[in-house]
Each structure stands twice: as C-alpha cells, then as structure tokens.
C-alpha cells in the first residue's frame, strides 16, 4: 500500500510489443533516483520483457504480480546513477 | 494436415481424449474461465533466460518435458494451442512445441471469441496427475542463430522477414539500445496476418496474397525475426498455414543482433 501511494503510475493497458518496454524505459528516465514506478500492463510477455530490460539499465524490480484478470502491476525502483 | 483446428469441431468434441488444449493466457484469466479440460501453460516456462542476456531462448527439451509432464499430458496427445489478443504469445508456444517435433494444432479463434460465441467454459481448476512426457522426436529445422542469418544476408535464395512495426524497421523507435534492422530484410508487420472478428489468422488466400506482395515467396527459405521472437512466431505459423515449407525463426532476434559487435545494421 505504501508502495502504491508513493509510486508514479504508468498505465500501459492495451499496449503490445514493443511499446510497453519503450514507454517504461522512457518514463524511468524522467524519474529521480530512488523513485518508484508502478507500471500496469495487460500484455503477458511484458511481465518478462520489462523486468529484463530495466534490470539491464540498473533499475530494481521490486515486485510483479497479477492484480486483476490479465492485468499485471510491476513496481520498479529507479536508479539513474 | 491442417495446422488450424476448427473451433466448431472442438466445441462438439471436448471429450476427445486425443486432444489436449493448452491455454497460454494469464493465471487469473485461466482461473476465471477456460475451455473444459484445458491446461494453463505459464508463459515463463516456455522460455529460458538470464538477467545478463537481452534475448529469450527457447526452453530446453528437458524443460518442455517437465512442463508437459506436470500438466499430465501423454505422448499420444495432439496439443491444441489456445491464445488471445492476436495470438502472438500462443504462436510462440506453438513454435516451441513444433520445434521439438510434437503434434501441435492451433485453435482457429481466440479465447475471447470462444467465450462470446457461448461455447463451453468452466472456472473449475482441475488437478491433473503427472505423466512422464518424453520427447522422442528429432528437433526440426525451425530455429537459426545470428551466424546463420549473417550468412544469408546476401543470399538470394533466402528472405529475411522483419515482423516488427514499420517504425522499428525504419529505425524511428527501438526497444533496445540500437535502432534499425538486419540488412536486406523485408518488413512484414505481424499484425497483417491477424484475422478479423476473433480469428487468430486471416484466411489462407488473403495471407498468401499479402506474403507474395511482400516478396515472401514459397521458392525461398524464409527467416523471420522481431525483437525477442514472439511476433515472428505468429508470422511463422501464418506461413506454415499457407504451405510454406522452409520457414525458420531467428528467435533471439534483433535483441541479440543489435547487441553483438560487428554485425551490420541498416536503417
């Protein structure tokens, strides 16, 4: 709950490859170090593709879970150092 | 033998013990409603990957054997893939199982369409007794790597098909560190073969016409790629449906190509 209150939200419902990864990476660049991004997707492969892409950029994936039917929330801690 | 399985036939033959439906939607979607006796395939179980690589490999033979054994599937079964949302993810499952020589078919309509038609569904999540699934077949010639692709860039007997969007193909956007395409590729965005009104694929005549207009002809070897191999799988299945018999996927795709030194990029 605390994570949800403090995070910046990015709604990517309806988006498919390649947009979820592109838009998540783009959004993370706008955040300050340590800020949390809450990404909502309904594209199943994005639950693998997004964590893989952002980890390579040094960000931390805090959690990823299915919160509604086919809808996933991925929490990412920004690390722009 | 047709790759597509007629949904009207399946609706009437849900008790057919020779066919097992594999559902590759999310766990909650499956738990809410699924085709009776179908089995949920977790998406990550058909991939093999690490945090250090930019691509996603096909699951190993042993991983696939374990997955199908946990799902209680017998070697004699015909596997029927059920997908949704255009069918790219389901196509990746189809290609993965077909690569290992398994008997696989593709349900012709999406699960959403199945639901909208009022065909039988259940929310009962059954437990299936484990089986001992063993892959005895030889792997099929459906998968190539970057070295193979490099050797085909200037080979007129092969066609490289980039199934990503025109924006990715033309280097306007990129899902990885580098933009562009593999030289001499032709762009065939995967959605072009997605059918209307809940059908996973367009009809054969329409798809054949689209492929031929794009210079993708049956006398050539066809190598499909995208960013990580998912969208390319849909085009792979579409080509197979149309009777192309020499189709392969560069499954590590542009995520791999663009991060290797000294490989040419166009666009």
Question: Would you kindly provide a written description of the structure presented here, covering whatever features stand out?
Answer:
- The complex is a heterodimer of chains A (81) and B (267).
- Chain A has one domain: TusA-like domain (Translation Initiation Factor IF3, 2-Layer Sandwich), CATH 3.30.110.
- Chain A contains three helices and four strands.
- Chain A has helices at 2-6, 19-30, 46-56, and strands at residues 8-11, 36-41, 60-68, 71-77.
- In chain A, strands 1-2-4-3 form a four-stranded mixed β-sheet.
- In chain A, helix 2 (19-30) links the parallel strand 1 and strand 2 (36-41).
- The longest helix of chain A is centred in the first third of the chain and has 12 residues, at 19-30.
- Chain A is globular and about 35 Å long.
- A five-stranded parallel β-sheet of chain B has the order 1-7-6-2-3.
- In chain B, helix 4 (88-99) packs across helix 9.
- In chain B, 43% of the residues are buried.
- The mean pLDDT of chain B is 96.
- The interface between A and B is medium-sized, with 21 and 31 residues.
